[in-house]
Amino acid sequence: MARNQEKIQAYQKKYRAEHKEAKNAKAKQYRLDNREGIRMYNKKYYTENKEAISQYIKKRGWRLKVEVLSYYSNGTPKCNSCGEEDIKVLQIDHVKGNGNKHRKTIGRSGAAFYRWLDKQNYPGGFQVLCANCNIRKLYTEYDFYCDEI
Ligand SMILES: [Zn+2]
Questions:
Q1: What spatial distance separates the first Cα and last Cα of the chain, rounded to whole Å?
Q2: Ligand 1 center to residue 80 CA distance, Å?
Q3: In whole angstroms, what separates CA 112 from the centre of its chain?
């Protein structure tokens, strides 16, 4: 039984690979022919499921943030400077600075930046800092503050 199922799955996989282009072209044509209908359906679906969609997007974003922060923390997400563990205030810091410039170069910020890090397979040069330590680092690095007034 299980063996038969494996055979069927292998056949289906092979069939899909062999007919991929034709299937994609057919799907593309269907989308072109039914553009208005699809738009109406999507609009209706969105209106009826707004709350669930919004929850889904929020959860997905949060999960990704936790995943990225966990990676750069080598485990439980925490600030690399003071050890703060409240995920709400943890941020990804560009170790060598120029975070704004880099984000502009790749055209990503916020959740899209976390997705970018995930897609790039977690490149080096980043660390987790809490908002306080991050801004403290910025002020110190760029000498934005005065000890005396
Ligand atoms: Zn900190």
A1: 81
A2: 7
A3: 5
pLDDT in tens, the chain (149 residues): 578 899 999 999 999 999 999 999 999 999 999 999 999 999 999 999 999 999 999 999 999 999 999 999 999 999 999 999 999 999 999 998 777 777 778 777 788 899 999 999 999 999 999 999 999 998 888 777 777 77
Distance 7 CA to ligand 1 centre (A): 55
CA of 61 to the centre of ligand 1 (A): 22
Q: Of 69, 97, 71, 99, give the one whose Cα is nearest residue 85.
A: 69
Which H helix or E strand runs over 71? Answer: helix 35-72
- Cα-flanking dihedrals φ and ψ of residue 127, to 5°? -145, 165
- CA 78 – CA 23 distance, rounded (Å): 47
What is the Å distance from ligand 1's center to 121 Cα? 25
Amino acid type, 84: E
CA of 93 to the centre of ligand 1 (A): 11
pTM as predicted: 0.70
Cα–Cα distance, 114 to 102 (Å, whole number): 13
